[in-house]
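Posted in: Protein Modeling Q&A

I'm a second-year student putting together a small comparison for a lab meeting, and my supervisor asked me to include a predicted structure for RNA methyltransferase. I've never done this before, so apologies if this is the wrong subforum. The sequence is pasted below exactly as I got it from our records. If anyone can share the structure token output, I'd also love a short note on what stands out.
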Amino acid sequence: MTPPVSSDSPPDTLDIFSRVRFIMVSPTHPGNVGSAARAIKTMGFHDLHLVAPADPDIVGHPEAIALASGAGDILESARQHASLADALGPVTLTFALTARARAIGPPPCDIREAAAQSATELGRPDARIAIVLGTERTGLSNEDITLCQRVCHIPANPEYSSLNVSQALQLAAWEMRYALLPLAGAARLPDTHARHDPGSDPASSERVQAMLDHFEQALLAVGFLDPRHPKKLVPRMRQMWTRNRLSADEVDMMRGLCTAMIRSAGHPAPHGAPSPRTLLNEHAQAPGPDRHV
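Accepted answer (user: helix_wrangler)
Welcome! Here is the predicted structure, written out as tokens:
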């Protein structure tokens, strides 16, 4: 497979996500490249750049294609460069993603701060952002970092901060997406497309009270409620259900549960059977052993 021709022409659209590129320096494992393609596509980005990969046909490797898992278009359009300086040509703000603290170099920030700075930068239509990641084994060199304006860290466990390069890229892409969505005028939650589920509407008081009567019948049927010694079980139960503002679907679900409880007890209530409240009143004064319910 012939490596794609490097091109840094501006995108056809000024869509904010198209102005963020992810650059992998000297990648050696095809699986990481494929996983990186999938990572950025799931977050709405598409601009993947590879600097001097170990295999010029790394994007065509079967492992890369397999781990891209539906992001083959990102692999096919990935641009290759001979140097990081070439890959950064049109970029106005670059973040070098690294786990190591650097005594000398650009000012550091964490990945969330980097995303916020990117959102501010991308308010200008000519701005371009880049997230740069190093090799799987050694990360970015000091020479690579001198080409960047910020050193960026993921606040991981200090005792074990080494992330797989594609995992680090996924976290960076997520933070970038979260910060850029408001700027792009997009929602952070899935759109229901105005579809309304009537079952989620609050149930009417009449339906809730009918369900509570049914529930008392079920408790009587299974022997949990002693009508001779109800104590405060019934009012507490009613208060609990009323306080939770049941939906129409939840009421129907509870009615089904009550019916199953009564059938399982072996004596379904006949048509026109007295309500549980009537049964409780009839047995309120009847003698019998104490029941703690």
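A couple of things worth pointing out for your meeting: The chain has two domains: 16-184, 201-283. Residues 3 and 57 are 6 Å apart (CA to CA).
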